[in-house]
Design a protein that fits this description.
This protein is mainly α. 77% of the residues lie in helices and 0% in strands. The protein has helices at 2-10, 17-49, 52-63, 65-76, 81-98, 102-120, 127-167, 169-185, 190-197, 201-221, 223-237, 243-248, 254-270, 290-305, 313-340.
Length: 352
């Protein structure tokens, strides 16, 4: 047993929730961002401005989503070069065969293929043949055998969440908004979670609301400590920057969480706010304005499909309220209450 443990240590294989649930999942979201999401944005711009070249670029970028996710996962798992490059085929096959739940299939299968690839890496004199052969064979074989079932399971869970949100928009609006918003601020990937389960529609709208409540909420809440730099880094970057402060004083999270519990059901019940763009955008919030852009992309898709007549001024008003105005206003109000109660003290929200 000690020999096997030593072997795993030498290969830097660590079976842990952090390695797979934080590092790999977070990296997968970056891979999605650099392929599917960027491709969708370029395609939308190309369509709106009638620039076919941008549609071409966007199409190529989106097509490489599976490969990009797998390579990102391999990078997070610190795989050797031959394993990393071999994951291109693994990611492409698992995403294609996984269907609507392709991202979850990529996550699971790429992790297994990467770790097995690391085990055989540099163990033979013909490493240039053995390592890519084993990595690709294991990954593609698992894709063929398991990816469709993993994809179906992920799609089923996503459909269940979306169905429950349609059925109980108030309760599920709160639940989805709070949980996805919390995931966005924690060192895990809300974007990857939304992508894995294909969260769109009303559930996607609630997820957007929760993410914006945390990002814009913390940006406004901490303005007195962090000024314009903090406003931009959190409002357009990530609320994850506050994790160190949250660990020191968890009460600073109360305004953002309460805000998400309010804006979620407002989105689902009052505005019927939906995200019909790429599912990954549901978990991005205002990071690079990806969430709002995803909502706009969904409008365009709906208009093209004939399910929506046109983009109206009311659509824009709802978007601005859910993504920017309400998160900032409510977080500021609840922040004042928490400061008055002594739950949030001076510099509790200060970023280093």
């Amino acid at each position: 047993m000690s020999k096997f443990s030593s072997f795993l240590k030498r290969k830097d294989i660590v079976f842990s929730a952090k390695r797979y649930g934080v590092d790999a999942l977070g990296a997968m979201a970056q891979g999605l961002f650099c392929s599917l999401l960027i491709g969708t944005i370029l395609n939308t711009i190309g369509t709106q401005l009638n620039i076919p070249f941008l549609n071409t670029i966007g199409g190529f970028a989106s097509a490489m989503a599976g490969a990009a996710m797998a390579v990102a996962i391999g990078y997070a798992l610190k795989t050797p070069p031959l394993v990393l490059f071999s994951l291109v085929a693994v990611g492409y096959s698992s995403n294609q065969l996984g269907g609507a739940g392709g991202p979850l299939a990529v996550l699971i299968i790429a992790i297994i293929a990467a770790e097995i690839g690391k085990m055989v890496s540099k163990e033979t004199k013909i490493d240039i043949l053995v390592t890519p052969l084993v990595t690709i064979f294991v990954g593609v074989a698992l894709s063929k055998l398991c990816a469709p079932y993993i994809g179906e399971a992920a799609n089923w869970v996503g459909q269940l969440i979306m169905w429950a949100t349609e059925l109980r928009p108030f309760l599920m609006g709160i639940l989805v908004s709070v949980l996805v918003g919390v995931a966005l601020t924690l060192p895990i990937s809300s974007a990857a979670i939304c992508a894995a389960f294909g969260l769109t529609g009303l559930a996607g709208g609630a997820a957007v609301a929760g993410c914006c409540a945390n990002m814009v909420g913390f940006a406004i809440l901490s303005f007195r400590e962090n000024r314009v730099g903090g406003l931009i880094s959190q409002g357009l970057g990530t609320s994850m920057l506050q994790m160190g402060n949250i660990v020191k004083n968890p009460k600073i999270w109360i305004p953002a969480i309460v805000t998400s519990a309010i804006t979620g059901p407002i989105a689902t019940c009052v505005f019927k706010f939906q995200m019909n763009g790429p599912a990954v955008a549901s978990g991005m919030g205002t990071c690079g304005l990806v969430g709002p852009i995803g909502v706009y992309t969904g409008w365009i898709n709906d208009v093209a499909a004939g399910t929506k007549a046109a983009v109206t001024p009311m659509d824009w008003l709802e978007l601005v309220l859910i993504c920017f105005v309400l998160p900032g206003l409510l977080a500021w109000i609840f922040g004042l209450i928490c400061r008055r109660l002594g739950w949030i003290k001076e510099n509790d929200l200060k970023l280093d």
